Amino acid sequence: MHVTLKFIGHVDDEQVDSIAVALAGVHSGAPVDMHFRGVGFFPTERRPRVFWCGIEASPNLAEIASSVEGALVPLKIPAESRKFVPHLTLARFDSPHGLSKLLEAAAELQSFDLGATRETEFHLFESILQKSGAEYAKLRSFAFVKGAA
User: Fold this and answer.
1) pLDDT tens digits, residue range 52-70?
2) Which among 124, 127, 149 is positioned nearest to 139, based on CA atoms?
3) CA–CA dist 108, 110 (Å, integer)
4) How far apart are CA 131 and CA 22, in angstroms?
5) 3-class SS letters over the chain
6) How many CB atoms are closer than 10 A to CB 58?
7) Residues 6+ positions from 22 with CB-CB distance below 8 Å
8) What span, in angstroms and rounded, lies between the C-alpha atoms of 123 and 20?
9) For residue 95, what are the contacts with CB-CB under 8 A and spacing of at least 6?
C-alpha cells in the first residue's frame, strides 16, 4: 500500500536521476503521522471506480506533497490541478458489476479504525501496468526528516 504524493506519469529513463535529485531536496521538520479511518469511493458511490481508505494526517503531509510538486515543476512535470487528498487505494473497478455487497459493507465501515503509522521517508516508484493490475518497483527512497534513516 502507498499514499501517492504525486503521480508523475511516463518519463524517460534518463529523467529518473534528475527527478531523484529534485526529490532529495524535499524536507520536513517532523515525521508524518497518519491515521487510517473510514472508506469511500471515487468519484462517487453511485459510479464507483476506486475504493479508498481515508487518511487523517499531520499537516506536514500536505506540505510535503506541495514541496514534491514544486520540486518537479522545473523539470517540466506539470503541477496537479486537483487538491491533494491523501488516501489509500484499496481497489479499482472497470464496471459496477457485483459491487452491491461491497457498497453495503462500506456503509458500515465509515468510522472503522484501520490503524496508524509514523513515516520519515518517501519513495519514488515505477508503476508497471500488467493485465492483472499495476506492479510497483521502488526506484529510490528519500528521508525527509534530518537524521532519519
Assistant:
1) 999 999 999 999 999 999 9
2) 124
3) 6
4) 32
5) CCCCCCCCCCCCCCHHHHHHHHHHCCCECCCEEEEEEEEEEEECCCCEEEEEEEEEECCHHHHHHHHHHHHHHHHCCCCCCCCCCCEEEEEECCCCCCCHHHHHHHHCCCCCEEEEEEECEEEEEEEEEECCEEEEEEEEEEECECCCC
6) 17
7) 71, 72, 74, 75
8) 10
9) none
Burial class of residue 39, CB neighbours in 10 A (0-12, 13-18, 19+)? buried
pLDDT of 149 > 70? The answer is no
CATH 3.90.1150.10 fits 15-143, yes or no: no
What is the pTM for the complete model shown? 0.87
Domain boundaries, the chain: 15-143
Handedness of CA 139, 21, 83, 62 (dihedral sign): positive
56: Cβ contacts below 8 Å, ≥ 6 apart: 34, 35, 37
How buried is residue 73: exposed, middle or buried, by Cβ count under 10 Å (0-12/13-18/19+)? exposed
If you average pLDDT over residues 4-28, what whole number do you get? 95
